[in-house]
Write a structure and sequence with these properties.
Elements: H1 6-9, E1 19-22, H2 29-40, E2 44-46, H3 47-55, H4 58-65, H5 67-82, E3 91-93, H6 102-107, E4 112-117, H7 120-129, H8 140-158, E5 161-164, H9 170-190
Parallel strand pairs: 1-3, 1-4, 2-3, 4-5
Helix pairs in contact: 2-9, 3-5, 4-5, 7-8
Bound molecules: adenosine-5'-triphosphate, (3R,4S,5R)-3,4,5-trihydroxycyclohex-1-ENE-1-carboxylic acid and magnesium ion (MG).
Adenosine-5'-triphosphate binds near residues 25, 26, 31 and 133.
Main location: cytoplasm
Enzyme class: transferase
Catalytic activity: shikimate + ATP = 3-phosphoshikimate + ADP + H(+)
Length: about 190
Amino acid sequence: MAAGTEQDRAPRFVPVRPIVMVGPMAVGKSVIGAELARVLGVDFIDTDQRIVAKHGPIPRIFGARGEHHFRQLEARAVADVLDTDKPKPVVLSLGGGAVLDTGTQQLLGRSTVVFLQATVETVRERIVRNTGRPLLAGDPVKAWMRLAAVRIPVYSRLADITLDVSNSSVPELVAELIAILDAEQRKENTAP
Ligand SMILES: Nc1ncnc2c1ncn2[C@@H]1O[C@H](COP(=O)(O)OP(=O)(O)OP(=O)(O)O)[C@@H](O)[C@H]1O
Ligand SMILES: O=C(O)C1=C[C@@H](O)[C@@H](O)[C@H](O)C1
Ligand SMILES: [Mg+2]
């Protein structure tokens, strides 16, 4: 490859542990996580998608069995990926409330946790038109703000990296994130 091409300058980041996307509803955990995995050439796992594939639509689970049951399925879906001696370097996108589980919080200690942060303005249109989130029923903007206020301290505490996703496209955010991951890994590798 010719020196100085775009590919030549791109960080050659190779993940050595799972990269986990956390953050409030609709900030882009699933789409950014999927694109990050594609670019890095690793598997992508989304806990909501796994639960839906096994147990059916999320609103139906909430309606039939309640939120507590959903949280149990969610904690199990996280543990299936992370609760092993040597977790694979996958990209894992969580549902917005998964970090509330203390077992999940502990398991995240072995991963690189990326907190995707956005203002309510960024997600307003997305949550108003989407009906698949039972906890946003009624007034979605108000509910999003209430849940985000409670959860942001938890996301912040668990995060290794915080990425503001408010004003960029998915490919731009993935490129930015890979540059940060690469810089963090270099720091880790040169630490005394
Ligand atoms: N940076 C972005 N630019 C434009 N659209 C985006 C961006 N990030 C996400 N979206 C869009 O916003 C919507 C929600 O994204 P996504 O489903 O990835 O959010 P999420 O954080 O996984 O939500 P949930 O908590 O419900 O799982 C999707 O339609 C997605 O295409
Ligand atoms: O923030 C939450 O509590 C949720 C977010 C979604 O990803 C789903 O996991 C579910 O709708 C609950
Ligand atoms: Mg998602």
